[in-house]
Write a structure and sequence with these properties.
The protein is mainly beta. It contains no helices and 19 strands. Strands 3-4-5-6 form a four-stranded antiparallel β-sheet, with no helix packed on it. Strand 5 and strand 6 form a beta hairpin.
Length: 197
């Protein structure tokens, strides 16, 4: 939220914050991604992407862009961003300029409100804002490969308000683990994706 956004380094075993960089108003922090020694963080409606040194959390540069900033992830060579539409944009990490885009569709129907992103085993995982589903997307042509249904993961009595929606995906490639959370959720869940019978 504006005035309440921060990038934090958190000990996963204890939840203790090791480092924190607060984002001042008027910025509303959105997606972040690591890139070598840097961390990219872009903002919802301010058209500014901040680049931090990942060790000191000091701003080392910034980029501007058109449209809104929602989620962000990366392949080995490109950044991938979402803006709340059905379009995912691939960007050059040295300039933040768009290099190509894909339109996300499931059986011909456009899937919009794509939010938080994560690149997992060659696929783009995307939260669909205000839903309990994650789309698994082909980075080649944007078609939805499959859906992950997380309905009921967080009990209703643990939600702060109607904006306490599923909105976080992280992948630990070293141990092949997927984590999910949501806005104002008190818990981060490690999940295992299983096929529906």
């Amino acid at each position: 939220m504006v005035g309440r956004s921060a990038v934090m380094v958190v000990d996963p075993a204890t939840g203790k914050v090791r480092q924190q960089h607060d984002l001042p108003a008027p910025y509303f922090g959105e997606g972040i991604v690591d890139w070598g020694p840097d961390i990219f963080e872009w903002t919802w409606q301010s058209h500014v992407c901040f680049v931090y040194d990942r060790f000191s959390m000091r701003v080392v540069k910034q980029f501007s862009y058109a449209g809104e900033g929602w989620g962000m992830t990366r392949t080995q060579t490109e950044l991938i961003t979402s803006d709340g539409t059905a379009v995912l944009r691939f960007r050059d990490p040295t300039t933040f300029k768009e290099t190509r885009q894909i339109v996300v569709k499931d059986d011909g129907r456009m899937i919009d409100r794509l939010n938080e992103l994560e690149f997992i085993r060659g696929e783009i995982y995307a939260n669909v804002w205000h839903s309990d589903r994650i789309a698994r997307i082909s980075p080649k042509d944007g078609h939805v490969i499959a859906w992950i249904d997380l309905t009921g993961l967080l009990p209703a009595d643990k939600m702060v308000d109607t904006e306490s929606v599923l909105n976080g995906i992280a992948y630990d490639a070293q141990h092949d683990r997927i984590f999910v959370t949501g806005k104002q959720w008190p818990t981060i869940f490690e999940i295992k994706v299983v096929a529906r019978r």
